[in-house]
Amino acid sequence: MTEYQETVFVKLLAPLIILFMIATIYFVFNKNQTLWNRMFASSHSLIAMVGALYAIVASKYTAPGSFDPHTVNFSKILAIAAIFGFIAVLYFKGNKKVHFLLLPFLLCMAYIWHVGGMAITHNWA
């Protein structure tokens, strides 16, 4: 891992931790469902975490100021995570107050999209 990737990882560490906690809460509080439905309802946060890790890894293979296909792939991953966030509302059968966690989920996604995009393009201005 390069020093640049370590810097990006540190910037994305807090959202990664928050997203992991959201996924865990969605999984734990969905007790009356099958394992598949529990995993499906909590997958939106895990997909967003994959997007953040993709930005960290892709930043090693991109040049400063370039608009690589990595930025499009990164945005697609986050869009899929957002879609799964709305699908989680349908598959989650536990306490409906847990859905308030979608607000920090969306805030983390916005932060990841901002920082991850800057990391991939090497444009921190």
If you had to describe this structure to a student in words, what would you say it looks like?
The chain is an all-alpha fold. The chain has one domain. Helices cover 74% and strands 0% of the residues. It has four helices and no strands. Helix 1 runs antiparallel to helix 2, helix 2 runs parallel beside helix 4 and helix 3 runs antiparallel to helix 4. The radius of gyration is 15 Å and the shape is elongated. The two termini are 23 Å apart.
Topology:
Layout (H helix, E strand, L loop, with lengths): L2 H26 L6 H24 L10 H23 L10 H20 L4
Helix pairs in contact: 1-2, 1-4, 2-3, 2-4, 3-4
Main beta sheet? none
Number of domains: 1
Low-confidence regions? none
What best-fitting shape do the alpha-carbon axes yield? elongated
Throw out a few tags for this protein.
125 residues, mainly alpha, 4 helices, elongated
